[in-house]
Amino acid sequence: LEPLALSELAATAVGLARADADADWMLRLDALRRLLMMRNMRPQYALVLAGLADVADDLGDWESCAKFLDKLLGARDLLKEPWKAQAACLQLALAQERAGHIDLAESTLLAAMERARKLAPAGNLIPASARAAQALIHLGQLHARQGNADEARAWLEGAVDMAPDPETQLAAEQALAALG
After folding, report:
1. CB 27 within 8 A of CB 62
2. Where are the alpha helices (DSSP H) in 23-179?
3. How confident is the model over 129-139, as pLDDT tens digits?
4. For the segment 142-178, what is each residue's pLDDT rounded down to a tens digit?
5. Which of 36, 87, 122, 148 fits as disulfide partner to 143, beta carbons 3.0 to 4.6 Å?
């Protein structure tokens, strides 16, 4: 197939798979992922990885979801897409937690916060601060789900302090209020 046809195939297949998630779509998308990787079609490869992660998430297959998000994170780094990489890092942490890898999820959330910090120097302080605050919110919620209320409160109070916009501020305050 020509690159343009593969691009169209990737976009169509991911859309269909997201609409009708099942194990067959996982197999089809994974075969397409391999082909795109062999052809070095990185943007389409990233698209298919995101689709695979979404399908795995819909199916409750957290191990596969985490595996595909980890690969997506690497692809976003190769594509020099730091904002998308930071978002993938947050998604990866949630999948890792759902898969039962709590320590790994915490490390990934700390990495997401560091990635957000690195986005700020290019004049992106407010959106970067929002991303860092989101990572803190997730860290707080992770600790709350593990029964570590004091640790959760510390992370969430940090998120409230860091939140640069009303939406992030509200999310942080609601997460803190949920602790009781």
Report:
1. no
2. 23-38, 42-59, 62-78, 82-98, 102-119, 125-145, 149-162, 166-178
3. 999 999 999 99
4. 999 999 999 999 999 999 999 999 999 999 999 999 9
5. 148
